[in-house]
């Protein structure tokens, strides 16, 4: 499975002005191209408002494109029928930034994690008992416990909630995960635990990650390749080590300079091998 983003541009129309016409529009993505190969962990880094979430919404077809293509295994996502799109969505899941807002407070953990199994019942054909078994398996996989099954989101910490979000994203056995700032709402100590979990899951389940963050330390810890986005444009991309050691653009250099220089022996973000 490969994801190819080819020359994607996204313009948002400006506000309505009178009966005719609109104010000036806004270009959130400007001719963005990148390619994520199977098994990779591809990072996207950029400051707030640079277009990161808009790009994930374009990949998931939650936005129409103004120009360009998004190809999944060579197939143009924006040309799929609704049924084909739903099938594809079982292979392509997302973990959201805010584990407080993304879990329905009225649903038990069981129902939250089982929901995608119901939605994609034509792909993963499980009866109610098998679904519960699958949910239990997923909870253990993300470091939660069987007794958590019938509790509600408010009974969990931020880190635990993000584990629930991850379990939900993994439920239907996707190949590809989009992680949109999955740890930035969490305390630093909890962040490291969730990053470790994501790193372990990627290896265990042979997942491909598109990992979005404004934090270069997190990207360095998790990713093999990285693209740097600034005001909707990619300013550079390449292997993480290369971009970190030999940044080509002033913007990347500025991001690197702004990064705290953590004690290498203590930082959880230092190197994959260190944890
Ligand atoms: N539906 C919309 N209509 C108009 N403008 C939008 C819309 N959605 C996003 N934008 C604008 O597009 C730009 C990029 O937004 P986006 O949410 O992609 O940024 P981001 O990089 O994810 O930021 P953050 O790090 O804060 O999450 C912003 O200036 C935003 O205001
Ligand atoms: Mg965002």
Quick overview:
With 275 residues, the chain is an alpha/beta fold. It contains nine helices and ten strands.
Task: Give an overview in words.
The chain is an alpha/beta fold. It has two domains: 1-13 and 25-91 and 178-275, Rossmann fold; 102-174, no CATH class. 34% of the residues lie in helices and 23% in strands. It has nine helices and ten strands. It has helices at residues 52-59, 82-89, 109-119, 128-141, 158-170, 188-205, 216-222, 240-245, 250-258; strands spanning 3-12, 26-36, 41-45, 67-72, 75-76, 92-95, 176-180, 208-213, 225-230, 233-239. Strands 6-7-8-3-9-10 form a six-stranded mixed β-sheet, with helices on both faces. A four-stranded antiparallel β-sheet has the order 2-1-4-5, with helices on one face. α3 packs across α4 (128-141), α3 runs parallel beside α5 and α5 (158-170) packs parallel to α6. The radius of gyration is 19 Å and the shape is globular. The protein binds adenosine-5'-triphosphate and magnesium ion (MG). Residues 52-53, 180 line the site of magnesium ion. Residues 3-256 form the ABC transporter domain. Pfam families: ABC_tran, oligo_HPY.
Count of DSSP-assigned helices:
9
The tally of strands reads: 10
Percent in helix: 25-40%
CATH first level of the largest domain: which class? Alpha Beta
Report the CATH superfamily of the largest domain.
Answer: P-loop containing nucleotide triphosphate hydrolases
- Gyration radius, in Å: 19 Å
SSE pattern? EEEHEEHEHHHEHEHEEHH
Instruction: Note the beta-strand portion.
Output: 15-25%
Biggest sheet architecture: 6 strands, mixed
Tell me the domain tally.
2
Q: What coarse outline follows from CA principal-axis ratios?
A: globular
Structural class by helix and strand composition: alpha/beta
Strand order of the largest sheet: 6-7-8-3-9-10
Bound molecules: adenosine-5'-triphosphate, magnesium ion
- The third-level CATH topology of the largest domain is Rossmann fold
Low-confidence stretches: 270-275
Mean pLDDT: 91
CATH architecture name of the largest domain: 3-Layer(aba) Sandwich
Distance between the termini: 28 Å
